Amino acid sequence: MDWRPSSDERSEDTIDMSTIPDSGQNADDALQRLKAGNARFVAGTARFPTVQKEILADLAKGQHPYATILGCSDSRVPPELIFDAGLGELFVIRVAGNVLSPEIAGSLQYAGRHLHTPLFVVLGHTNCGAVTAAIDTQQRGTRQDSWIQLLVERILPGLEDLDPQLTPEAMLAQAVDANVRWTMRQILETPEGRERQAEGRVKLVGAIYEIETGIVRFLE
C-alpha cells in the first residue's frame, strides 16, 4: 500500500493522516510498513510534511503506535525519518549502543502492556561509536570514562565470538550485528519476553541501518 500524499497534498506541504492505518494490525503488517517507509526514504519520496493542527489535536487524545523501536542515540539515525513515519506511528526508545537496561526494559514493557504494539525492533547502525568503544575495551583493554564504561560493559557480553582475524572494518560490522542480537536475546530471556513470544502476540526483529546508504537491513 502506498501512503505517500497526492500531488495536491504535496503542494500544500500537508498530509491527511486519516488515510494512514492505525495500530490495529499484526506484527507482519507493521514490519512491511517499516520496510515500505525505508524504501521511500532511500528513494527520496518520503512524506516529511507539516502536520495539520487537527491531527495534533487528535493525537493529544492518545497514541497508538504500530511499532516500538529501540535504537541508538546517534544523531544520524532518527527512526521516524528513516522509516518515513508520522507523529504517533512509532514508539521510539533511544540509547547509545541500543543496549538494554532496567530503564529501557521498563519502556519496552510499557509499549507492550499499555500501547499494545505488535512489533518490536532493535535497531543498530553501521559505524556505531558505542560498539567501537566496546571493541577497544575488549581487544586493547581501553578504559572509557566512568559512565561510558558502564554502557560499554553492557555491550561486551555480546562480542565474545568476534573473529580476531577480521579487518577492523569487518570486525566492527560483525560487532554491530552481534550487539543487536545480544540485546534481542536479553529481551527474549525476560519472563515477559518469553511469555509474549509463546503467545505469538508480538514479534521481535533486529535491523541494521546503513549510514552510508540510508538502507535498513533486517536480520534473519
How would you sum up this structure, described in words?
The chain is α/β, with parallel strands linked by helices. It has a single domain, classed as 3-Layer(aba) Sandwich (Beta-carbonic Anhydrase, Chain A), CATH 3.40.1050.10. The chain has nine helices and five strands. The protein has a five-stranded mixed β-sheet with strand order 2-1-3-4-5, sandwiched between helices. The longest helix is centred in the C-terminal third of the chain and has 21 residues, at 168-188. Residues 1-21 have low confidence and may be disordered.
SSE inventory with pairings:
Layout: H1 7-11, H2 27-43, H3 53-59, E1 67-71, H4 79-82, E2 90-94, H5 102-115, E3 119-125, H6 129-140, H7 146-155, H8 168-188, H9 191-199, E4 203-209, E5 216-218
Parallel strand pairs: 1-2, 1-3, 3-4
Antiparallel strand pairs: 4-5
